[in-house]
Amino acid sequence: MSRPATAVEAAPSADPTTESFVGRAVGPAPVRVALIGTHGFGGSHLRNLERLRTSGAAELIGVADPQEPPAEVAHLWHRDLGALLTAHADAPPEVVIIATPIDTHLPLAREALAAGAHVYLEKPPVPALADHAELEAAAAEAGRAVQIGFQARGGAGVDALRDLVASGELGEVRAVHAYGAWSRDRAYYRRSRWAGRRRLDGHRVADGVATNPLAHSVHAALVIAGIARLDDIDSVTTELRRAHDIEADDTTFLRIDPVTEPGRPRPTVVCALTTTAPDQSAPWVEISGEKGTVRLFYTEDVSRRTAPDGTVTETRHPRTDLVENLLAHVRDPAEELLCPLAATAPFSAVLEAIQSAPDPAPIAPEHVAWHGEGEAARPVVDGIERTLLAALETGEPFSRSGAAWAREDAITTWHPPTDPAPRATGAPTPTGSRAAARDAHDEENRS
């Protein structure tokens, strides 16, 4: 669903607590909403739900959290989703928002769907590709919608670039590039037990740079490239490294090579991402063809198009709050979801490729400078911004693009499963055997 760009004085904020809804009214009756997880990003949802209450779009009927919630919602508190659902059996929530650790997403979403609720699920949706198929099946069985919180999809710039690629207006676009140079300190990776982890208590959590803080870049690039289904992916090449004292990756190269068909060319997606930059800059996704280049700064909802003669045209794109989009869909199913679960299957494939690779190797200390003290200390990798750009330009991993600190043995290539049943129908294989196979693969990579 394309949304036209509009000329405005300033780009809408990427913070969902301040975004304006661009769309249609959600109907006369507020949608009954429950929030699972009130801390961390759950706090942003609380503020956004207060805005939606004021506008008449939503009624927050309950929150669930094992920890005591903020005082303003203490009267709505339940320790878990089951208790909340029991307390509201007569008028259950129509929408359940889940803002909890990644490894809890699948069981909570299934519980909410089984209770008849639509679900808003924070990204990444699930920690494994098999879990994605299982959740799709649960949503189909319940006849309910699942919206995924990839915030970049709220901005119409992603639609605009996707349409440019599909139309051929720029000529052939051979690659979609995603660049993210962020800075994170020690405190960021100590914000919770699962921060910076690949596994916790025997479960996947997948809190790496490409699957959590800069996951929006990866998903947006896949959408823009027209990679909409698992069957669109031929392979995923990764090079995972870390400068922080964490388990997951903080510096990552990704190349997603599409399946090509006669008359249906798709660009390759190349991503270079880090949380070890000297300064934080706005991430971007870019497409280039013989008739120009367009770079989208998705957190700012601004794109800059450069013509072959060097002329630059800036466009500011409207933004739709994804929660409000789901509420509108609940009241009127004709209102299309901007980020439905099915559309995120390619991202779950990328996450699977990352989680299937060996644990990221540390970058040698001589290539890392630490700035600040204590919890505020943050690592900066030598020449990291140049390294990211070189990887995008060559389309090759860091170790093949001239990075002195990179290691070629960190490169892995993953292919989607060959069993056509889950890919074609979304039907899951038996939970026990699927989980056992995934855990055995993870255990092999740990050894």
Question: How would you briefly describe this protein structure?
Answer:
By secondary structure, this protein is of the alpha/beta class. The protein is 27% helix and 22% strand.
Structural write-up:
There is one protein chain. With 447 residues, the chain is of the alpha/beta class. The protein has a domain at 155-319 and 341-421 and 431-442: Dihydrodipicolinate Reductase, domain 2 (2-Layer Sandwich), CATH 3.30.360. 27% of the residues lie in helices and 22% in strands. The protein contains eleven helices and 20 strands. The protein has helices at residues 42-55, 81-87, 105-114, 129-142, 156-167, 215-224, 322-331, 345-356, 384-394, 420-425, 431-446; strands at residues 31-36, 58-64, 77-78, 95-98, 118-121, 146-148, 175-181, 199-200, 203-204, 233-242, 251-258, 268-274, 284-289, 292-297, 302-306, 312-316, 361-362, 368-371, 378-381, 411-414. Strands 7, 10, 11, 12, 13, 14, 15, 16, 17 and 20 form a ten-stranded mixed sheet that branches. It has a six-stranded parallel sheet with strand order 3-2-1-4-5-6, with helices on both faces. Strands 8-9 form a two-stranded antiparallel ribbon. Strand 13 and strand 14 (292-297) form a beta hairpin. It is globular. The termini are far apart.
